[in-house]
Structure prediction request, 378 residues.
Amino acid sequence: MPKKIRLGILGGGGDSLIGILHRVASQINDNYEIVGAVFNPDHNASIEFAKQIDVPTNRIYKDFDTLIEEELKLPEEERIQVCSVQTPNFLHYPMAKKLLDNGFHVICEKPMTMTYEEAKSLQESHTKSGKVFALTHTYTGYPMVRQMREMIKAGALGKIHKVDARYYQGWINPIIHDKEQRSSVWRLDPTKAGISSCMGDIGVHAFNLVEYTTGLDVKSILCDFNYLYEDNQMDVDGTVLIRMGEHVKGVIRASQVATEEENGLAIRIYGQKGGFVWEQEKPNFLYYFEEGKPLQVYKPGHQYNSEFSLEGTKLPPGHPEGIFDSMANIYLGAARAIRGEAQNDGAFPTMRDGVRGMNFIEATVESHKSGNVWVELD
Ligand SMILES: NC(=O)c1ccc[n+]([C@@H]2O[C@H](COP(=O)([O-])OP(=O)(O)OC[C@H]3O[C@@H](n4cnc5c(N)ncnc54)[C@H](O)[C@@H]3O)[C@@H](O)[C@H]2O)c1
Prediction:
């Protein structure tokens, strides 16, 4: 049995939304041990949190630079091997870059950076480093998403002609209508979130899911954003037309003010031979339309699924796979890459996905600002 991978955590403190998802996911397949962290910019809060979750406090550092400095002094066999970056967006680039430049593997939250420029610079650091970089587009880890990807690759839809991805949330609705509240949320602050709120935070997940499942690149986009108040012009809603080929077209719809929607990510893909429908809030059902046949419903764990899909299922059919399992599958892929083991194509979102995501986000802003015009992606 290989030794556990020594994991460091940046952000993801007790006050965070996503920290628990990463911590639990990293433990699900018994691959990682949390050995060091900066959970919070307040050192005492970091230490208190470490005590609460039973992580030894001797490697809870006061800040990120100190973590790197002190870890590099340790013998390699004790040093953190991979750091998971779970901070607000503006810290992803400086943290991930310094980690890669100093020989650490990186698991990083999306959006990968603040700008496309930063994304390309991070890609250079990554190439030079030869280290593993995994981007946590969580939804790619679901067994039914992986099944859809594998079936599309094997030709289940024939030639694809239409893609419709939507990501509707409602949590910003009660915030946006209150002046004080809308000025205190980091996702609505361009210095912390980047140039886009809605497309940067959730539209990019939908974009990634489109490319991940179809295996096609989005070539050009046309975007129309909405914001609700002049004193905060960050997009809270947007509709993006996408072209993936001469006759492959679609739409990405995202909203943070879709009143009372929860985490409504869904994708519909149609081709000459059939179609797929998958919804994140019911992740264990993959609907497959085959031309001229009754609707088929695929579920996790059955032997009719691909080996890649089955690898992400730990219990027999009927034991629901959820968001923790989905993220755990990404951590599993990263663990195998760190250990240099063979793995399936698509086991975790990569640097390329991060670069494409930033290219997409910037293109949506450019398209909207230029009067809703078509913009090419690189
Ligand atoms: N993959 C997904 O589905 C998904 C879901 C939610 C959030 N996210 C991403 O995860 C990231 C964090 O989002 P969140 O909602 O958890 O944010 P959050 O504001 O709830 O938590 C951020 C955490 O980072 C810590 N932090 C802030 N500055 C720090 C610093 N200098 N050093 C160390 N820690 C610091 C905070 O103390 C807090 O614990 C964002 O980039 C977001 O886009 C991804």
Observations:
- The domain at 142-315+349-369 is CATH 3.30.360.10 (Dihydrodipicolinate Reductase; domain 2).
- The chain has two domains: 5-138, 142-315+349-369.
